[in-house]
Here is the input.
Amino acid sequence: MTFNPFEDDFQGHSDKATSGAKNLQYVLKWLERDECPLGEAARRTYSQAVRKVARLIGRAPDRIPACTTQFQSMFPNKEYVRSWGKTFCAAKRWKRNVSAAINGATGAIAAQKERRSRHDDWAALLAVLGAIAEKGQPSPFELHPKQLICIQSCADIARKLEIRLTDIDPDIAFSLYRTASTRGAQDAVVDALDLIDQSRVLTERRIQYILPAQPIGFVRPERAEKVAIPASLMPELHAWVDLASRGRWSITDNAFTGGVSPTPYLNAVKKIITTAERAGVLKLTELNTIAAAFDERVLVTVVQMLRDLHKNDGAGAITPRTARGYFECLAPFLERNGEDTSSVRMILDTDRWLKTGSRSRTEMSPHVRSFCRNVVTDMNARIRFLSLHIQLRKKALLHLKAAQMTTGREAERHLEKSRRFGTCAAFAALETDAIPARVSSVLKMTFRGSAAWLCLGHRKMDDARLMIPSAYVKNRKPLFATISATSRLRGLETLRWYEEVIRPLFSDHQDNDNFFPAVQNQGRPLPYATFKSWWSDCAAECGFPSLNPHMFRHGQASILVAENPGNWSIVAARLGDTEAVCRDTYAWIDHEKLVLAGQHELTKEFPNAT
Here is the structure.
């Protein structure tokens, strides 16, 4: 048996069936047995990794189940704690080693290898498509070798269920899709079934013999909670939202002024209307006006369903905090459209579930608070956080160098990677060395023209300046920031490097005035969804898997509060928020320092007290 240490099945469906009552002590014993196919060095590495699990959990190995599902739940891939490894990559290696040891001891890898070694219709399909991908035989369609991965994944699921290729129909295809344990595995099933349908154009007899009698035509099912609002209601909905958000009419300016963003109103109303449809209290297709969606009976049913979904972790569940935010948006939305708001206000005042959301409105989520505490108390974590743009820049330079040493698709892949890392480096430099502005504002930033928001200076020692207009700021107050050329954070250096090296990698960099141009849409800024996907991958590779862009604000504010206890003005100026908001959000840091100071006062007269 050839053992692959990187075969990790964190979802662990197979190990449930094979492990029985096996535990980590069984895994350690398996690593010592003669039948273990690993070499001495690998055995030692895996044993150390497994013992580390027991040490971190604080239990004996014989009391920890040998189950990759439980291991993944305790040590999620998207989180990183320094005790797991000195770096994020080291922690990933440790998780892979533990997973491989568990899968090897429980027989999961052996079972998977046995399935892959079968000579069945799936193997025949892979053989023919493999020859096409390697250009070994002519074909009516293009196929890349990596596209075969989805067929391999789908074949493994089908073999587990004892499903032959010829037997697949739409119902069986749906069963394969639902059996896939992750979103990635589900995507692989969808791609594989589509590729199987494409293979029907092949004239080779052995392919025609094993394909299903009819095209599968599988379409990914819609999410259970996804409800479409009829097109006939959308004009009225947008009219109501516009009336609620456009502000007051100015007789001197001859325009509406003091408006707010319509997005919160639109999201809140959509959620309430679609939840009412799911609950069965409304039939959207039968409505002539959206006003019926805000009757007391409908709103009560919506709250009850949202509460049940949250309790049972159902599809479309939201937290009490989010639900309360929606209903708080609904009150002014209805009031400005001349509707009665008494039912909404009564629900907000009396519903206990929504009240729990009110108590946590200014509270951080546990993982954000953990991150903030870490950057406050751990000097190494604080340095890594404040210098993240430098780490991202180094990653981009590595990919640029790799692109110069390769050709074809490989070079294009490295250039794409360098563009992603470079863009994220520039964003991190702005957030760290300028001002932690919101992502939506930063992405719309211009750096050319008479009304440019960002000026990088003309000489090396010139400071840069950033101005975000009030229309793009949440509290409608403009933001101003200076980026010092002599800053120890070296943010300006990264921004100028991005403009000179990375930005030209975008196709319309010469004509687009946005500092972060879109990849495809000419003249447009980089879309938020695109940037967010880039950021998630790049930040994780630099050791911050759970760091979302907004956490720059939280991290910097936490450091400032810890270094300047009681001085809320400096935090408010940095974030562009009021002192009251900053105090409500970050007072726990000040409180923890006061508690420690109180403990010190109690013992300061003790002998040897410091």
User: Anything to note?
Assistant: Residues 420 and 533 are 10 Å apart (CA to CA).
